UniProtKB/TrEMBL annotation:
Chain coiled-coil ranges: none
SUPFAM superfamilies: Bet v1-like
The protein's name: STAR4 protein
Pfam family, one: START
UniProt record, GO biological process: cholesterol import; cholesterol transport involved in cholesterol storage; intracellular cholesterol transport
Lineage: Eukaryota, Metazoa, Chordata, Craniata, Vertebrata
InterPro entries in the cross-refs: StarD4, START-like_dom_sf, START_lipid-bd_dom
């Protein structure tokens, strides 16, 4: 088990990584799924043997409220159907924390419940916000869970110039679920999960 990292350099490196993903040209992405709420693309990850996913959609609400629903905090468990528990293990200055959370089984439990321990950081980006995270090798793995690993992930949320009550939400996710899983099942689950994330988030913001 690793000790907790110094948050400032990790936060800075994480932000720079996400900004780099955000500047990757359209030609490098391939559409994986399209719904009325979001489009999901993917490209091979530089971090592991799976994919880096990009999801994007317009959400009707102001940036701060959307990000408050996504980042670690009381809202997320209320609406995110995939997340079954969340505990903040450590809080640092500058909108940084370490959280442990668990996810439900997926695809008729082909993908068993997972546990993650993530460093999370929220910061300003252009006129909006970026909330991002990366998994840490920290704490004991609880029984009945496989410990998954999130390579650098994050959500950019910026107000639309011509419609300030709406925001463009763009996510970058690369999750290594670990355990014995067929890659095709993981890829199917990831695309659907990201598309559902937008529809669930929109419902939550309307209530």
């Amino acid at each position: 088990m690793d000790p907790l990292p110094n948050p400032a350099p990790l936060a800075s490196k994480l932000r720079n990584t996400l900004v780099r993903y955000h500047s990757v040209g359209d030609s490098e992405w391939r559409v994986a799924k399209k719904t009325k709420d979001a489009t999901v693309w993917r490209k091979p990850s530089e971090e592991f043997s799976g994919y880096l996913y990009k999801a994007q959609g317009v959400v009707e609400d102001v940036t701060n409220r959307i990000v408050d629903h996504i980042r670690p905090g009381p809202y997320r468990l209320d609406w995110d159907s995939l997340m079954t528990s969340m505990d903040i293990l450590e809080t640092f200055e500058e909108n940084c924390c370490v959280m442990r959370y668990t996810t439900a089984g997926q695809l008729w439990n082909i993908i068993a419940p997972r546990e993650f321990v993530d460093f999370s950081y929220t910061t300003s980006y252009e006129d909006g916000l970026l909330t991002c995270g990366i998994s840490l090798d920290y704490g004991e793995v609880r029984p009945n869970f496989v410990r998954g690993f999130n390579h650098p992930c994050g959500w950019f949320c910026v107000p639309l110039k011509d419609s300030p009550g709406h925001s463009l939400l763009t996510g970058y996710i690369q999750t290594e679920l670990r355990g014995m899983l067929p890659q095709s099942a993981v890829d199917t689950a990831m695309s659907s999960t990201l598309a559902n994330f937008y529809s669930d988030l929109k419902k939550a913001l309307k209530t």
